[in-house]
Every structure is written in C-alpha cells, then in structure tokens.
Design brief:
Blueprint (H helix, E strand, L loop, with lengths): L6 E5 L3 H12 L2 E6 L15 E7 L5 E6 L14 E4 L2 E4 L5 E5 L2 H11 L4 E9 L2 E8 L5 E6 L7
Parallel strand pairs: 1-4, 7-10
Antiparallel strand pairs: 2-3, 3-4, 5-6, 8-9, 9-10
C-alpha cells in the first residue's frame, strides 16, 4: 500500500485567490469547487467560497485548500506570528509548509515568486545545515520554509 501526504490549507474567504497565486508560483492544474457547486443555494454568503480546491503539478507538487464557512468562525484572525531570533524560530503557529529542492537556483526562483507580498522571516541564503534556506509568511498568512537538500554522508 502506498500513501501520499498533501497539505490542506484552511482560509477565511480567500482560498481561490491563494490557490491562483500558488499556481503562478508552482504551476500545475488548479481545481476549485464552490459550496454552491455542491448544492448550497447561490444566495447564501458562502455559496461562492471554495469547499474543495487543489493544485497538482506534474513535478509532484500538490496542495489543497478550502474556505472555512462563516458559521464556523471564518472571521477569526490569523493563527499567530513567526520570527527568528538568535538562530531560533519562535512561533505561535501549529504548522509550516516546507519546500525542499535539489538546487539553489530552482529554490531561489520559487522564493522570488512566493515572496511577493510576503513578510520575510529569514532571508534566503546559505545556512549551516543546507546550501540555502529561507523562511517567509506569504500574503495569505501561510509560513513557508524553503531550503536546498544537503548532501549527507554516513558518519
């Protein structure tokens, strides 16, 4: 049996916008189905919100997203903040998205695209544990760690 893990992001009314942005960063096929598509009366406030959204890329990248319904607290604020101090990551968030690539050039290109409108937590550059590492919170409040796979040798 094989399993795959895909991050499922929860948004507060802007899942479509986030998915469209991530598609410009990562490519892939976008699927966005609204609550109205699943039968919710079109006149209700959440009918145009995303109940199932995903991006699937030919390179294996995948992400899912949906809009939290208003009656479930969609107006609640962001989960928390993240910052780096003295080489440590200090956060109130329950998860980060981690993206690891094989070359500094390919990850740097994704960093450039993903950082549009983002708050940079740690600039992308060389790190003790990887050829390159960076951390940012994107314009949708999702914190991303981007790094380049290091070559390890058995010791």
């Amino acid at each position: 049996m094989a399993f795959a893990t895909t991050a499922h992001l929860n948004f507060r009314g802007n899942a479509r916008e986030a998915l469209e942005f991530y598609q410009t960063v990562f490519g892939g096929q976008l699927v966005a189905v609204t609550y109205g598509d699943f039968g919710m009366p079109k006149e209700l406030p959440d009918a145009s919100k995303i109940v199932f959204g995903q991006i699937v890329g030919a390179d294996g990248f995948g992400i899912m997203a949906y809009d939290i319904p208003a009656q479930a607290g969609a107006q609640a604020g962001q989960a928390g903040t993240t910052r780096r101090e003295n080489g440590m990551t200090l956060t109130h968030e329950s998860l980060f998205m981690s993206l690891r690539g094989d070359s500094v050039e390919e990850v740097a290109e994704l960093w450039k695209k993903l950082s549009v409108g983002a708050t940079v937590v740690e600039d992308f550059g060389p790190a003790q544990w990887a050829p390159a590492f960076g951390m940012l919170t994107d314009q949708f409040g999702v914190t991303w760690i981007l790094d380049v796979a290091a070559e390890y040798t058995a010791g």
